[in-house]
Model the fold of this input.
Amino acid sequence: MNLMALEAATTGNAFTELLGGIAPEGTPTWALWLGAAGAGVGILVAFVSLVAMFSVWLERKVSAHIQCRYGPMYAGGWHGWAQTLADGVKLLLKEDMIPLGADKPLFMLAPALVLGAIFGALVALPLAPGFFFADVNMGLFLILAFSSLTTIGVVMAGWASNSKWSLYGAMREAAQVVAYEVPLGVSLFVPLMVAGTFSLTEASAAQSGWFGMHWFIFQNPFMLPAFIIFFIAALAETKRAPFDLPEAESELVAGFMTEYSGIRWSFFFMEEYAAMFLMSAVGAVFFFGGYHSPLTALFPEEATTGLLYQLVCAGTLIFKSFVGVFVMMWLRWTLPRLRIDQVMSMGYKYLTPLALVCVLGAAIWETIFA
Amino acid sequence: MYFDYLNALVFASVGFVFVFINVIIGSIIRPRRKGTQGLEVYECGEETLGDAWIKFDIRYYTVALVYVIFAVEIGFLFPVFGVFGDIVSGQTSTIGNLALVHVLVFVVVLFFGLVAVWAKGDLDWVMTYKAREWEPSRPRRLPLARTVADLEEEQSATDDPSGDDTDEGTTSEGAEAPATA
Done:
């Protein structure tokens, strides 16, 4: 790539600007770009790891309190905050087992594919104005594409394990995704119509002002049903209960990851929690105002470029996403698992027609009132 | 713009490599124990029987075919709804509300497609394949299992002389009955 084009492309990226400010005079552009890329990669890896660790701890705490238990209490001191960290170290020290009958290359490839897909999807998510890894103008499409790539990893894991449990899990995952990709995509047409953009940065920026009352959810009466359909489909997409049929720990030992152990297994978990966060964040960006809230509306116009504003924005979006993650956990420990034919008929016979009706209604509403 | 897509690719490959880096770190720091017992495929403690690489009966393949069609339609509709708001407000195009008609026609056709598939029963999970009713190759001489009620009926058929007049079949069966009873 031409360096001039590169320079033009990277201006506006927070990392490049930050490094451009502190780098000594005469630093070549490519060094600046490499530095920005390194910083971005480091931040994303740390971010995904932290989100996964916190979510695992949160899940254990939420499930424990729903069942009138305490959950982890000892590791780290305060309410077992370091439990996941200790578990991570333990998992790293575990024996790396690949079953003798397994398809070795595919078995090793599957967790990498799953995690790579979720990393690629997280790139399009802006945490604050100007704080993004990549301003992808087809952001929503990119996220949907990458998150359905994880399915291939899951099916690959199930098939490569050469275990009956894994095979069942993988086939169920395929069935489930076939049923839920359609309502997931169709329900996102509604906010797309209001936003008029695929870019998550632009969609977030469009919802500023009015103390958070410019959120897309208030723009159109069909937004709320569309959000509910999106959320249910996202639950199925991230393999969460009541749609956790692929791993179904009470019937198929651990489903597609029965044969995985140690650090390889932990990456499937990492992907699951990162995907939960990502789906909730997409919901927050396209329905609930992205990084805007009454709190960020308090900032005067001239303060909106400062670091404090960016931190508040990032905090807002992360908070909103974790509310979604919390609701997902709450549902998991409340609802029983569906049967696979119920899952399929739910996807096609209920959610898809409802989503299409929402889209039609929203299109008419947009034409008449907007 | 392409730079951003390159970014996405770079991050995806970082996630990809991250797994292998961790596996390598683990292989360096963990203790080494040799043994093959743990490497068997888990089958609830029993010895593993056969492969799992079998011809799997995918019951939902019609649904999967329907999904392919719907996914393509969604792919078509995504850009349409991306610009729909601007078109109907007259910002980017002069066709205005005609865009609504286009969208309505497309979505309604999609809807009727779903209804047609539904009515055909392609969305139903195939519970069982109905086997043909089993017929014995030649008439069975004796019933395999009989209930007390059957026996009593047979008994009454043999004991009661009036039964002979009603039906020939019951009497012949009833005559054989004591042989097995």
Summary: Confidence is low (pLDDT under 50) at residues 1-11 of chain A. Chain A has two domains: 1-93, 101-369. Chain A touches chain B through 92 residues (CB under 8 Å). The longest helix of chain A spans residues 29-66.
